[in-house]
Amino acid sequence: MSAIPMIELRQVVKTFKNAAGEFTVLKGIDLTLHQGEFVAIVGKSGSGKSTLLNMMTGIDHPSSGQVVVNDTDLYARMNESQRSLWRGKNMGIVFQFFQLLPMLTLLENVMLPMDYVGMYDFDERPERALNLLKLVGLENQANKLPAAVSTGQQQAAAIARALATDPPLLVADEPTGNLDSRSADIIINLFQALADQGKTIVMVTHDPSLTSRTSRTIIISDGELVDEAVAQALPLLHHRQMLAITKTAGRKHIEAGQMIISRDSQVDAFYILCAGTVDVVLTGKKREDTIVSRLEPGQFFGEVELLRGDKSIASVRAASDGPVELLVIARNAFLDLLKQSPLTEETIAKIVQRRLAENKSADRRE
Amino acid sequence: MTRTLLVVFSIAVGVFSIGVISGAHVIIENDMSASYAANRPANLELRTEDFDRDFLAMLQNASGIVDVEGRRVFNIRARRTDSSLWTNLDIVAVDDFENNTINLLTLVAGSVSPGKREVVMEREVLEEFKIAVGEEVVFELPDGSTKTLKVVGIAQDPTTGADDFLAPPFAYISMDTLATLRQPDSFNRVYATVETGQNDENHIRVMAADLKERVEKSGVAVYRSRTAMSNEHPLASTVNAILGILLALGILIVFLSSSLIANTLAALLNQHLRHIGVMKLVGGCNSQVFAMYLVLILSFGILALLIAVPAGGLGAYELANFIAQKLSFGLLGRRIVPLAFFIQIAVGILVPLLAGFVPVINGSRIKVLSAISGEAADEMVSRPEVGAKRESAFERFQHQVTASLARRGIHFPRPLLISLRNTFRRKSRLMLTLFTLTMGGAIFIAVFNVRTTLFDYMDNVGRYFVADVTLDFDQPYRLTEIEAVARQVPGVVDVEGWAFATAEVLYPDGTVAENLTVLAPPVESQMVNAEPVSGRWLQVGDSKSIAITEGILRSFPDLKPGDSLNVKVGGREQTWEVVGFFKFIDREGLIAYGTYEYFSRETNLANRSVSFRVVTDRHDKPYQAEMSELLDKHFRDAGYKLRQAQPGLSALSNATESLDILVIFLLIMAVLTAIVGAMGLTGTMGMNVLERTREIGIMRAIGAVDREVMRMVMVEGMVIGGISWVLGLFLSIPFTYLLSLIVSLAVFETPIDVVFTPVGYLIWLGLVIVLSAVASVLPARNAARLTIREVLSYE
Question: Which of A155, A244, A327, B692 shows the greatest Cβ crowding within 10 Å of its Cβ?
Answer without folding.
Answer: A155
